[in-house]
Amino acid sequence: MLENIETGYEGKYDFPPYARAPEVAYLLASVPRAGSTYFSHVLWRTGCLGAPLEYLNFDPAGPYFFAAKSPDAQLNLWRSVLKRRTSPNGAFGLKAFPPQLQALHSTNPQLLAEVLAAVLPQGAPRHVVYLRRRDRVAQTVSYARAAMSGIWRKEQEQGGAAALDYSQEALEAAERGIAFQEQLWEQMLRDLGVEPLRMWHEDVLAAPAAAVRQAADYLGVALDPAAEVDIPSILEQSRGDAATWSERYRQVREPSAEG
Q1: 2-47 confidence digits (pLDDT tens)
Q2: Strands 24-29, 197-200: parallel, antiparallel or unpaired by DSSP?
Q3: Where are the domains of the chain?
Q4: d(CA 202, CA 34)
Q5: Domain 11-253 CATH class label
Q6: Which of 15, 104, 122, 250 has the greatest count of CB atoms below 10 A from its CB?
Q7: Which phi and psi (to 5°) does residue 16 adopt?
């Protein structure tokens, strides 16, 4: 877990223990730098749509790195999360990226089976909210710069965005990575026979309340303003010279007809 930063995984943000299986479960599917952390907190804040965070993130900078090499610890965490992060109305959400599910396929198939049974159960309605970003250049620049600097959240910044030398190689690798993860989601959705609720980061930013209502309607969940919870805010990162990167990359990626 990121040190000295409240990320929302802390126990003080748990819901009261939920003794039964969730009444409604959903997967918040996304790809890097598509605004999924912001949207997950918008959904969570309602108090009616679970707390859709990355409960399968065992990466070195992830919330549960301490369990990375222990399948048993991962299983115990997951079973605990199902109780602690289901909202009082019975809704549970999981945010995930394709590599997290792929990793479980080889390292912890039992956990993968339990996750799919809980979030995408056979013989029951399956719900996937699939968040993407329309501005692929901005997304690519954000991903490349975060990967280069190691700065993924506003709280990690010290005096603004880090100055980075433009890297065409890093940008092309970032765009390939985003496209590959989108392909993996599409294949997975086809295999599962699920038609997701497709949403866009730009729409969530422009009208978060409308985005929440859209998701709640898709899930068949009634929103109750009295159920709202106080959780950490997601702050926008400093842009630094990202605009210059974007302009330069657009010129390479989308050359003019006269060129």
Answers
A1: 566 788 999 999 999 999 999 999 999 999 999 999 999 999 999 9
A2: unpaired
A3: 11-253
A4: 9
A5: alpha beta
A6: 104
A7: -60, 145
